[in-house]
Amino acid sequence: MSSIRLRLLAALLAALAAAALAMAALTYRAVLAETESLFDYQLQQMALSLRDQGQVAPEQAEALADTQLDFVVQIWSVDGRAIYASRRHTDLPGRAALGLADVDTGAQTWRSYAVLAQGRVIQVAQPQAIRRQLAAGAALRSVAPLGVLSVPLAALVWWLVSHFLQPLARLAAELRQRDAASMAPLPTDGLPDETAPLVAALNALLARLDTTLAGQRAFLADAAHELRSPLTALKLQLQALQRSTDEAARAQAQAALGEGIARAQRLVEQLLQLARSEAASPTEPQPVDLAALAREVIAAQWPLVQAKGQQLALEGDEAPCVVPGERTALYALLRNLVDNASRYTPPGGRLCVRLAPEPGGVRLSVDDSGPGIPPAERARAFDRFWRRDSGAADGSGLGLAIVQSVARRHGAEPELGTSPEGGLRVSLRLPA
């Protein structure tokens, strides 16, 4: 049973039933005890009313002899001789001790009270079975109202539970009526304190989803726009190749087409990297040696760096710099940093990857001797497809966006500054 309504009703009705049974049991026992005391009091009063009389008056004897009367009055002399019995009975109790006593005659048990007065023993007795029957009837009559009230109380509990769960029903109806594109916050008016945090959390989730979806829509729009230009260029280059009449023009067109394909390939790769980085689910971090990773990246990028006559150095890799994270994502981060630095650094320039262990983490920095980015424009440098000067390099404007996405997944925030080489420094602190 997974319904809150049914579980709440079952718990409340069970508690109500348990409370009613407990009250009924306590009331039943209390009424039984009170009725027994009352019957004992009646026995005492009847016996005491006869103690001062010399004999039983005829009219009194006639009343005591009534067969409908449950009581039996017996009088003995002090030597044990029976003087009087209110009526004949097949199983009368014998003479008992003075005061209250239970007399077992074999066939039944009698409750008796005996008193000594004027040389006589006066005993009044009543069958125990009749006493218990009368007491039980009185107790059941006192408990009966609880049984009568249990039905309307159960109906009241049902109505109250349904009434107080109405906000959840309205919330569910509101969610069912929405389409997949609706990210408007849920109404919070009239919600109980226990439900308000749930709705607030849902509204926060909807706001995050709206932001994410808006980012994805903007990403797709930007990607479509950015892909249109290289694809158009490839089409034009292919047409130029087809129109080429001599070997020199054909070779030049082929070279231009190859460069265009390489740029388009890199753009698509970076788009896929960014999409994977932003959509990746959190994974269990594994120890990653940044020094070894940096050497791999430099080895992979070395042909590009060498082709431009640039100098590339690695500092701080003498000792392992281990951080928890995802190796593939950190490889993409380092590769984009080195690739960006190389693309925006003129031929013959200097690049440097630095690793500096710090308390609780490792500082990663990539410096270049390129034109850098003015402080006023650094805030936009992490935007997708933003390029300060599209003529300075053939970049796609996605490198730093990928770096920021991967860094944030690893609890870091990239910072831009001025490099000691004179260009741009990109640094971030990865927690160890």
Automatic annotation (TrEMBL):
Tagged with keyword Membrane: yes
GO molecular function: phosphorelay sensor kinase activity
Entry-linked SMART domains: HATPase_c, HisKA
Uppermost EC category: transferase
Subcellular location: Membrane
Residues in the signal sequence: 1-24
Annotated ranges, domain Histidine kinase: 222-432
One Pfam short name: HisKA
Name listed for the protein in its UniProt record: histidine kinase
Keywords in alphabetical order: Kinase, Membrane, Phosphoprotein, Signal, Transferase, Transmembrane, Transmembrane helix, Two-component regulatory system
Record PANTHER family: SENSOR HISTIDINE KINASE TRCS, SENSOR HISTIDINE KINASE YKOH
GO cellular component terms given for this protein: membrane
Chief place of localization: membrane
Catalytic reactions of this protein: ATP + protein L-histidine = ADP + protein N-phospho-L-histidine
Keyword field contains Acyltransferase: no
EC numbers on record: 2.7.13.3
HAMP domain sequence ranges: 162-214
